[in-house]
Specification:
heterodimer; A: alpha/beta; Rossmann fold; nine-stranded mixed β-sheet; two-stranded antiparallel sheet; globular; B: alpha/beta; seven-stranded parallel β-sheet; five-stranded parallel β-sheet; 9 helices; 18 strands; 27% strand; elongated
């Protein structure tokens, strides 16, 4: 079986701060493997049996190789980087298009295609469903449990007001939410082996994609303007070293 | 004017379309005829299977009616049990309701739903297709967009029209930036964040047409079991007037104390993303960009450092009071008052005094 995990390189959003004008301070923010994607990869590695292949893929700048290396260290078997200047500025449609072509051309035998529930920077969570439709296969979003069930799989999906269990046919797209998934112990041996594994870089021409199918030109939405927003508060500070006094003060304010 | 090869002289060599002059402009033949708004009306079902129109669908209907006077189409999925909802749907401004009439579509089937909505969209040619950004809407929207080969803006918090062009606003980078987005073609698609627009007042005498639509495909999921999860009104963090929010700076033993404080104040307990990841709280309690936007009268944050994603979820709070050990915590930038001290101890003390 072959599992394909789509990952993303994101800025470490927990470290992003805003300056006094309300603009983002981006300098010095490290790029990391998206935590949701890492969670999805962990879920797959817990399912893996000898003979199975776990392929990771990301679309991004050449620096995104670092997150693929991290995936290999965690336990993926092979990695593909879809990098091309023409891919820049892609919206959901163009991103899903590029990934769908990658799946069709490079890994048409994928048993499952797994994504995170959303990316920590964009938060849209739309690529999995759009990818599934472009490939013409079914989708299972917000997966909180993933199990093998004979030749197929059994998932539990969480819709907030409903939880349901579904049988998953081979060749489906899953998006994985937080939940009790299959955790494993990391291995140091694996970590050392990973440095020797190759990362295949594919560009637009190698994927046989047209210039108007990808990136900004292939996008179906455009950002017409953006402005910073900032809420101003009084920002008083109260010394609460004595919990009794602090609690009394807090009670007064309620 | 013309080439003088014919008597009329009304044709023109410069015009390549071969149409009489002015016809293109008059009949707008080169433009899309798309008009009106198609809205997916999400139906939520309780444990007994009684259908109810989702709040976000009502909010969208109210906003579309106020924003634009073009035609409003609705799509619902289900069977005879939907009949009691018709009156309410028409009272909210739907003129034509497409009901995809199939028992097999009572449970959520994203593939079949998307195919049906796309077919209906081809029939009615709407200028816009709107869905609520609930978990189901967020799963269904991109599938429809891919089928119609059109653009989709997720999680909008603002919606305006200029002619037929939708201008959609959504927060980016943890709410520090508001981006205005347009689609490059028709139909334009957006999912709307719940709680963005006020609930409209129904117009009781409104009437409309129901059209039964047949789904002919066979894309059904093999659902083994389904369990409704009931979230009580007292547990809904988006409606609470008082929220006691806990972050990574508090001990796990403080959770029952926070619940007791919340009960005494007539509110409920919320949390930051970290505590959901630790498994201390269900995701339904999470405040922030990947959780829920809240708008309480008082937001009490204990041990929350305040990542931009978290702060994005509390901008609508009337008052924010934070307790944190670190006087430089980022949450201090948005609070009315920051109490610098031990969150666990102050929480315990507060519980005693109330």
């Amino acid at each position: 079986m072959r599992f394909v995990v789509a990952v993303k390189q994101v800025p470490d959003t927990t470290l992003i701060r805003v300056d006094e004008h309300g603009s983002l301070i981006r300098q010095g923010i490290p790029a990391i493997l998206d935590p949701y994607a890492e969670h999805a990869l962990e879920a797959v590695l817990g399912l893996k049996k000898p003979g199975d292949t776990v392929t990771v893929v990301t679309m991004g700048p050449p620096q995104a190789e670092a997150v693929l290396r991290r995936c290999l260290e965690i336990g993926a078997d092979e990695a593909y980087l879809l990098a091309d200047a023409a891919f820049a500025g892609a919206d959901v449609h163009a991103t899903a298009k590029t990934l769908s072509v990658f799946v069709k051309r490079v890994v048409p035998d994928a048993t499952l295609i797994i994504c995170g529930k959303q990316a920590a920077d964009g938060d849209t969570g739309e690529v999995p469903a759009e990818l599934a439709q472009m490939l013409g296969i079914s989708q299972f979003c917000y997966v909180t449990q993933l199990k093998r069930n004979g030749d197929g799989f059994l998932v539990t999906q969480d819709y907030g007001d409903e939880q349901r269990d579904c049988r998953v046919p081979a060749g489906s797209v899953l998006s994985v939410a937080e939940g009790d998934l299959n955790r494993r112990l990391p291995s140091i041996k694996r970590y050392l082996e990973a440095t020797a594994l190759p990362i295949t870089v594919l560009n637009r021409v190698q994927l046989m994609l047209g210039a108007y199918s990808v990136g900004l030109k292939g996008s179906r939405t455009k950002i017409v303007e953006s402005h910073a927003v900032r809420t101003v508060r009084t920002g008083k500070i109260f010394d609460g070293t004595d919990p009794v006094k602090a609690a009394a003060h807090l009670k007064e304010m309620l | 004017m013309g080439c003088e090869s014919c008597a009329s002289g009304t044709c023109s060599l410069e015009k390549k379309d071969g149409l009489p002059p002015g016809m293109l402009e008059q009949y707008r033949l080169s433009q899309s005829r798309a008009d009106g708004t198609l809205i997916w009306l999400e139906v939520q079902r309780d444990a007994a299977g009684t259908p109810r129109l989702a709040e976000v669908s009502r909010e969208i209907l109210g906003h579309v009616k106020a924003m634009d006077d073009s035609r409003v189409y609705g799509v619902v999925f289900g069977h005879n049990e939907l009949k009691p909802l018709y009156g309410e749907i028409f009272s909210l401004g739907v003129e034509t309701l497409y009901e995809v009439h199939d028992r097999r579509l009572i449970p959520f089937q994203p593939e079949a739903y998307a195919e049906s909505i796309a077919q209906i969209a081809v029939r009615v040619e709407p200028a816009a297709i709107l869905l609520g950004a609930t978990p189901r809407g967020r799963e269904l929207g991109p599938r429809v967009a891919a089928l119609l080969d059109t653009g989709l803006t997720a999680d909008c918090t603002g919606l305006a029209v200029e002619g037929r062009i939708l201008r959609m606003t959504r927060p980016a980078f943890g709410g520090n930036l508001l981006a205005t987005i347009e689609c490059t073609g028709f139909p334009q698609m957006a999912t709307i964040r719940p709680g963005t627009f006020p609930l409209p007042a129904p117009q009781p005498d409104a009437e409309g047409t129901v059209i039964y639509w047949q789904y002919c495909g066979n894309s059904f999921k093999d659902i083994v079991a389904s369990r409704p999860v009931t979230v009580g009104a007292d547990q809904d963090i988006t409606k609470a007037k008082v929220l006691v929010a806990l972050g990574a700076g508090v001990k796990r033993s403080s959770i029952p104390i926070a619940e007791s404080v919340a009960r005494k104040l007539g509110g409920t307990v919320a949390c930051s993303r970290k505590l959901v990841e630790l498994g201390w709280f269900p995701a339904s309690r999470q405040v922030g960009q990947s959780g829920k936007n809240v708008a309480p009268d008082i937001y009490l944050a204990f041990g929350i450092s305040g990542s931009v994603q978290h702060l994005a979820g509390i901008t609508a709070a009337k008052r924010i009071i934070a307790v944190n050990r670190d006087p430089g915590a980022q949450i201090g930038e948005v609070t009315d008052e920051l109490i610098v001290g031990d969150a666990d101890a102050i929480l315990a003390e507060l519980d005693k005094t109330l």
